[in-house]
Amino acid sequence: MSTLISGFSKLNKEEKIAWLMDNFLLDYPESKTVLSQYLNSDSKLQQLHDEFIENTISNFYLPFAVAPNFKINNIPYVIPMAIEESSVVAAASLVAKFWSKRGGFKAEVLSTTKIGQVHFMYSGDFADLETYFNSVKSNLLSATEFITKNMRKRGGGILDIELKDKTKSLENYYQLHVTFETKDSMGANFINSCLENIASTFQKEDIEIVMSILSNYIPDCLVKAEVSCKIEELGDNGLEFAQKFYQAVQIAQVEPYRAVTHNKGIMNGIDAVVIATGNDFRAVEAGIHAYASKDGVYKSLSNCSIDNGVFKFWIEVPLALGTVGGLTALHPLAKFSLNLLQNPTAKELMQIVAVAGLAQNFAALKALTTTGIQHGHMKMHLNNILNQLGASKDEKNILIKKLNGSQITYNLVSKAMDELRTEKIKVK
Ligand SMILES: CC(C)(COP(=O)([O-])OP(=O)([O-])OC[C@H]1O[C@@H](n2cnc3c(N)ncnc32)[C@H](O)[C@@H]1OP(=O)([O-])[O-])[C@@H](O)C(=O)NCCC(=O)NCCSC(=O)C[C@@](C)(O)CC(=O)[O-]
Ligand SMILES: NC(=O)C1=CN([C@@H]2O[C@H](COP(=O)(O)OP(=O)(O)OC[C@H]3O[C@@H](n4cnc5c(N)ncnc54)[C@H](O)[C@@H]3O)[C@@H](O)[C@H]2O)C=CC1
């Protein structure tokens, strides 16, 4: 078996697959069929997907769903979600309806500043460096004017360039710390292009540029979403529910093991909408988890209060999202999602995504502090277990009815399936 290949990227799709089949998939002959089943029959659409990334051999589907009944700042929304995990969309839908009857979600963008840095090494005198920086600062801005022209017309562009002395952390290490407003784009490519021009203008013999890159840590690009209602509006056991819910949030504030899972539940909602709208979920994930650790300990992203008989639950998250650029217009389903959301601005999309995260967190905490998570989650996951066991449509119908109300586990379903098939044989 030859596991090293040069020129793989130059092979066409069929040749790439043939090489994989010959070298890594000898025991899985059906793999060629599996890969081709996931190709689109529309060759233009397939080519579009092939060209999103490199060495494409097929498409990897995620279910694309919608959660209706959201009300955000009094505007109704149906939220698109791309996710593989059962019960997330059901939970979002359940909570959307619940809060729509209690005033809906309120959301507000707190700030939209993004950051990029030119990292460099310098061993000379700091005062000389500072003098040099001050003397070239306006040149650094003018060197990017051809890139920032249109962004400035939109009210964005470079906000400031600062020189930062980082030598206490690393010998000879300095930065140009640049702040940006990128309006409706996420701004990664725009920021990186500006930074590279700034770096080449700033460079001189005693300054060694190490790299120029945006930061995905954006604590000044923040959105807040919240829900609130009178305790009695929460239902018959409103106070008991609210108090237990509050405790659950406090635990996630002080216990990192719990906070990580708590925030994972929030990301169920956030990632699903970020992916559905063609945004960069890795950037969002990295930025949000860094923000959750901003006080030196990893904490809950959401908060809860019970004051004067009012239950309030809110989240504050950093989000760098685009409604233009990247794949937002290029991926037909991302374009569909943005249309479904009534073509939001980046700020509006930040609000929608934060709400999806808060809704998901509310659903999970409601389930966890009342019925337990497995009740609802496994009810939704039952279909996956049945599919895994190869159940026919009839078998599924019978078993879903039979297992209604039971505590669903793989073993229980598998046993019920065996019993059903044994019964069928006996009848025959
Ligand atoms: C699962 C539910 C929603 C069931 O909740 P339920 O009350 O049993 O649902 P229902 O059958 O009575 O239906 C009520 C509504 O729920 C929605 N709904 C209900 N079923 C569906 C469905 N099949 N398809 C679409 N929507 C559905 C839908 O809105 C429906 O209204 P309708 O459409 O009938 O007017 C509830 O138990 C729940 O919200 N559970 C929480 C689920 C959850 O958080 N899942 C995430 C995965 S677990 C995890 O990853 C994170 C976690 C939990 O670890 C995070 C943490 O620890 O914090
Ligand atoms: N570390 C990271 O997060 C990195 C991410 N990326 C990728 O970069 C892409 C996002 O970069 P972008 O610069 O946003 O995309 P992009 O390169 O597609 O540029 C978007 C462009 O749209 C134009 N535009 C039109 N109307 C606009 C409006 N109303 N507001 C703002 N701009 C408008 C601007 O010229 C803007 O530069 C994503 O695909 C991301 O995955 C790339 C490098 C690093």
Query: Total strand count, please?
Result: 10
- Shape assignment: globular
**Helix proportion range:** 40-55%
C-alpha Rg, in Å? 26 Å
Structurally, the number of domains stands at 4
Biggest β-sheet: count, sense, barrel?
A: 4 strands, antiparallel
Q: How much strand?
A: 15-25%
Strand order of the largest sheet: 3-8-10-9
CATH third-tier fold name of the largest domain: 3-hydroxy-3-methylglutaryl-coenzyme A Reductase, Chain A, domain 2
Kindly provide the name of the CATH class of the largest domain. Alpha Beta
> Which small-molecule ligands are present, each listed once?
3-hydroxy-3-methylglutaryl-coenzyme A, 1,4-dihydronicotinamide adenine dinucleotide
The chain-level structural class is: alpha+beta
For CATH, the homologous superfamily of the largest domain is named as 3-hydroxy-3-methylglutaryl-coenzyme A Reductase, Chain A, domain 2
Quaternary structure annotation: single chain
The unreliable regions are none
Order of helices and strands: HHHEEHEEHHEEHEEHHHEEHHHHH
Judging by the overall fold, what is the CATH architecture of the largest domain? Alpha-Beta Complex
What is the rounded distance between the termini? 50 Å
Mean pLDDT: 96
Number of helices: 15
Catalytic activity: (R)-mevalonate + 2 NAD(+) + CoA = (3S)-3-hydroxy-3-methylglutaryl-CoA + 2 NADH + 2 H(+)
GO molecular function, one term: hydroxymethylglutaryl-CoA reductase (NADH) activity
Family: Belongs to the HMG-CoA reductase family.
Keywords: NAD, Oxidoreductase
